[in-house]
Amino acid sequence: MYKRQDVSILLAYYKLLDDVRDESALRRIGAGIAALAMRRAKKKAERRRPELAEAVRRGLEELSRLEAQKETSLDRTADAFARILRAMADGQSAENTKIMREIFYHTGRWLYILDACDDLAEDHKKGVYNAVAARFAISDGVLAEEARAHLAATLEQSLAAAARAFELLKTRQHGEIIKNIVYLGLPSVTAEVLSGVWRQRRRQHERPV
């Protein structure tokens, strides 16, 4: 009953602590108040799932350290985030749990890199760290064609690894839905983010009527 709730609570709490360190003064105050309000729920989640809580805490601390030191290795930062998601895997059997950990890891790696791609222009404008910009020395918030091709290849590799793991699952609850997401949905998102279509569409939705 509490498994998904605990994951959300732990991630939200440590994300708020990260915002306290990194955001503007006004946002730091808001994040600090929200973190204090969540402390009781966070402690309950820690008691229910101590191993997960420790994995999330260590993973986010490592990711924050890498980002603070402006790490230029995209693999290292993406790996730190992917290991956090891997810790959240929970299958129906020991074998399925091992496979789900692989799916979560490779999907997490894909998510971290693609999110950095989507945030390039905004992070450049704010002057904040971006793992993709650090790796490819992007100074104007725009991906060069060579960098775009490299990112497309590494993102495709992550999704292919997640798909291979998915095929090993013996019990597939909502299998067809997940299969469509892995084989069709996520590759489509990759293409839209790298081409800039994803951000343009989001801006249109955010534009006041």
Task: Describe, in plain words, how this protein is organized in 3D.
The protein is an all-alpha fold and 209 residues long. It contains ten helices and no strands. Helix 1 (3-22) packs antiparallel against helix 2 and helix 5 packs antiparallel against helix 8 (145-167).
Per DSSP, what share of the residues sits in E-state strands of 2 or more residues? Answer: under 5%
Write the element-wise H/E pattern from the N-terminal end onward. HHHHHHHHHH
State the low-pLDDT regions, or none.
none
Given the structure, what is the number of helices?
10
Which sheet architecture does the biggest sheet show? none
What is the overall shape?
A: globular
Structural class: mainly alpha
Mean pLDDT: 78
Distance between the termini: 40 Å
Radius of gyration: 18 Å
Strand segment count? 0
Summarize the amount of helix as a percent range.
Answer: over 70%
